[in-house]
Design brief:
By secondary structure, the chain is mainly β. The chain has one domain: Immunoglobulins (Immunoglobulin-like, Sandwich), CATH 2.60.40.10. 10% of the residues lie in helices and 35% in strands. The chain contains 1 helix and 14 strands, in the order H-E-E-E-E-E-E-E-E-E-E-E-E-E-E. Strands 7-5-4-9-12 form a 5-stranded antiparallel beta sheet, with no helix packed on it. Strands 2, 3, 6 and 13 form a 4-stranded mixed beta sheet that branches.
Length: 176
């Protein structure tokens, strides 16, 4: 009986130390910049959603930079992401009033299902470039409330667009 208990205890410790739990995947650091029409997106959130597992996200800094960390309820965030395929969403908006949202990037990017942004992470990277474009959604005139020079548009709709009209451009191997 004592031997069986000791055996289970050792197996349990081995699993924790050896990594047979859900957090055992090797994480790689991922950092980069978000551009919209060639200029840094100066605020917002970027989120990488895997085919399975926990998403990773980051605030977008004033220079457009981000540094991904895992999301988890009641746990400390872990820097980086497991290797794999991700759908990406970028949300950058301000609430103007109870009925109006000012989008600092097209709202189609705010949902990973409509963003058209996909990336495969297979190694550590600190220069991942995520390129967004206003395309035909670009507002006709600049808003006085533009805080980041990205010519925001106002919309009464809160839900993201249902279908992407334009795909982001690519530059180099690490561009989305």
């Amino acid at each position: 009986m004592r031997t069986t208990y000791l055996h289970f205890l050792l197996v349990g410790i081995s699993c924790c130390a050896g990594g047979c739990g859900p957090n055992s995947e090797q994480r790689v650091p991922v950092a980069g910049r978000v551009l919209i029409d060639g200029q840094p997106l100066t605020s917002g959130t970027i989120r990488f959603v895997p085919e399975s597992g926990r998403p990773a996200s980051s605030a977008i800094m004033a220079d457009g930079s981000f540094d991904l960390a895992s999301e988890s309820v009641n746990r400390v965030s872990e820097m980086g992401v497991p290797r794999g395929k991700y759908r990406v969403q970028v949300s950058a908006s301000n609430i103007v009033d109870d009925e109006t949202i000012r989008w600092n990037a097209p709202e189609k990017y705010a949902d990973f299902r409509t963003s058209g942004l996909d990336v495969t992470i297979d190694r550590p990277t600190d220069d991942l470039l995520v390129e967004l474009t206003w395309g035909d959604a670009k507002p006709a005139e600049e808003s006085d409330a533009s805080r980041n020079g990205n010519e925001p548009s106002e919309s009464k709709a809160v839900e993201p667009a249902s279908s992407p009209d334009t795909a982001p451009s690519s530059q180099g191997e690490d561009a989305l």
